[in-house]
Specification:
Belongs to the peptidase C56 family. HSP31-like subfamily. This is Type 1 glutamine amidotransferase domain-containing protein. The chain has 232 residues and is an alpha/beta fold. The protein has one domain: Rossmann fold (3-Layer(aba) Sandwich). It has 9 helices and 11 strands. α1 packs across α3 and α1 (28-40) packs parallel to α9 (219-231). The longest helix is centred in the N-terminal third of the chain and has 13 residues, at 28-40.
Length: 232
């Protein structure tokens, strides 16, 4: 069985385009699905955050009005179960990327506030990619890829095919026109090749060791793809 690193946002707010703070964090469905499926398959998951802070769940992702009573209760129960792990997150700066067969990055808007600009996350992703480890960000998680630049500013994932929470999804079901910047657009500008499906479709893209998912609806498919890659 494999050791897997899960890099989770430590942010609890995202400053919107009008300067107002928007409560955020990690998206429950994404973290819960990935963590639960990987552990159930016998793998070991280490949670890391910038500075080792305890990550915050996005309140909207456990709101019964948004996700339904059954899912909200399930996500809350699982997060309570792994609360000790979340509360003892490893600082990303202390991570030895060579220890891990895969790096998984769930979303929520939080990565737009910290992981996209976090030098330690960037170093970890570059090291993992160059070692051939599986890298699996999904929904807003691919924002973290933007931190992966070398000393000359070159983007580690330029030319790689991936998917991400689309600008259309952001405008229609995310933070709308108050979005401070759009992850899909920024990744395109950095040189990534974006492969999008219809809004809210379950969509996963595999490009070598890079496995990406478009949105929360893709969470289970991303976990399955990571498990298949580990098995292969």
């Amino acid at each position: 069985m494999s050791d897997i690193l899960m890099i989770v946002t430590g942010a609890d707010t995202l400053t919107l385009a009008d300067g107002t703070p928007h409560p955020t964090g990690f998206w429950a469905e994404e973290l819960v699905t990935a963590h639960r499926d990987l552990v159930a398959a016998g793998h070991s998951v280490t949670i890391a955050t910038p500075g080792g802070v305890t990550p915050t769940v996005d309140p909207g992702s456990i709101d019964p009005a948004a996700v339904g009573d059954e899912k909200a209760a399930d996500f809350r129960a699982y997060l309570e179960q792994i609360a000790p792990e979340l509360g003892s997150a490893t600082p990303v700066a202390d991570v030895d990327a060579s220890r891990y067969a895969a790096v998984v990055l769930p979303g929520g808007h939080g990565p737009m506030a910290d992981l996209a600009f976090d030098a330690a996350t960037g170093r970890t992703l570059i090291a993992a990619n160059r070692a051939g480890a599986i890298i699996a960000p999904f929904c807003h998680g691919p924002a973290a890829l933007l931190s992966a630049r070398d000393a000359d500013g070159a983007f580690e994932f330029a030319g790689r095919r991936l998917t991400v929470f689309t600008d259309v999804e952001e405008r229609t079901g995310g933070t709308g026109e108050l979005t401070p910047w759009f992850v899909e657009q920024r990744l395109r500008e950095a040189g990534a090749v974006i492969d999008s499906a219809d809004p809210w479709a379950d969509h996963v893209v595999v490009d070598g060791n890079l496995i990406t998912g478009q949105n929360p609806q893709s969470s289970e498919s991303v976990a399955r793809a990571v498990l298949a890659a580990l098995a292969g």
